[in-house]
Every structure is written in C-alpha cells, then in structure tokens.
Amino acid sequence: MAVLRILNYPDPRLKTVAEPVTDINDPIVQQMIADMLETLVNTPHCGGLAATQLDIQNPKRIFVFYDFFEDKNSKETPTVVINPEIVNTEGEVFEQEGCMSVYPNEILAAILRPARTHMRGLDRHGKPIEFIREGYLAKNFMHEVDHLNGKLYIDHLKPLKRTMLDKKIKKVRTDHAKQKEE
Ligand SMILES: [Zn+2]
User: Fold this and answer.
1) 22 CA from centroid of ligand 1 (Å)
2) 143 CA to middle of ligand 1, Å?
C-alpha cells in the first residue's frame, strides 16, 4: 500500500472523467482501492477522496469516505464505493464546502447541494451497496461523484463568485510558492 499524492487545483488531471470499474478482481483495481484507503487514513481532516484527485494512472470510478452514519461518536469507518450512482436527491442546502485539492485550509465557498442523497454502488468485493444519507454525507457523495466526472465544487459557483474565488486561489498559490522558496 502507498500514500498517494493529492492533486492540487489547477492540475488538469482534476478534469479527468473516470472510467467505470469493469473487473473488481483486477489486481490494479484492488491496488488502487488499497492505496486510496491508505491515503484517506493518512490525510488529517479529510472526509473523502475520489480516484481522479489522486496521482493515479487511469483512475477508475472509485471513492473512499468515512461513513459517520451509524454513530457519530463511533470510530470512523473508511468505506469504499465503486461505480457510484445517484439514485435520487431531496431538498436543498446552501453551505460552505472545501476540497483537499483546492487549498482546504484557505479556500471555502458556499455551494447549493441536495439535503438528502440516495446513492448506490459496489463495495470492494463487488457486492451492491446502498446509502441514504443526509447533511454532510449527502453533500459529500455529490462532491465525490462530481470529482469522478471531472468537476470540482468551485465549478458550481456563479461566474462572478468564481472569478473572485479564482483571484483568492491565485494569491494562496503564490503564498504557498513563496513559503516553499523560503
Ligand atoms: Zn474534493
């Protein structure tokens, strides 16, 4: 297993539309899953990661996340979802969101997302799994599925807000580059 590098905006690979997994037992797919889980548990303050935001060759439609559904106080369980499909969504929430690929310590923006999401997919053994989640996890599902479609949360912003945020991101990037030089 290996901890993978998280790609940073504006890396063009963040626009990759991932291909579905066709053979769960493919050793490359299983290795990808193992590395993604290893990366998730070794990334502090990270709720989920999609294959397309990691330094992976030919990323597949896979994401990993912590499912807090059972008990908020229980130990976080890293969960794998393969070929996720949104069955339906309900309601709307307009809340702040961030992304591990878009300077999460500095950049946040409010995005409109469903309040409740019904999603299905396959687990790492190919068994069908289904989730109906609200709040943070409902948003998280949409966020990760967006990643697998080559889309970032900031792509949901209205043009004026996006232009303002892009300016802020540019400044953060310059600051980071300076810190590296020092
Ligand atoms: Zn993200």
Assistant:
1) 24
2) 6
Residues with a catalytic annotation lie at: 144
Q: Which residue has the tokens 């997919």?
A: 121
Q: State both tokens at 132.
A: 């109906």
- pTM of the entire predicted model: 0.94
DSSP code at position 167: H
Write the pLDDT tens digit of every residue in 132-164: 999 989 999 999 999 999 999 999 999 999 999
The structural architecture, per CATH, of the domain 12-181 is Alpha-Beta Complex (3.90)
Distance 110 CA to ligand 1 centre (A): 14
Contact 95, 135 (CB under 8 A): no
Instruction: Identify each DSSP E strand in 10-141 by its residue range.
Output: 48-50, 62-67, 77-90, 93-97, 109-113, 116-122, 128-134
Q: What angle do CA 46, 48, 52 make, to 5 degrees?
A: 115
Order of strands across the sheet that contains 48-50: 48-50, 62-67, 77-90, 116-122, 128-134
In whole angstroms, what is the distance from residue 87 CA to residue 91 CA?
14
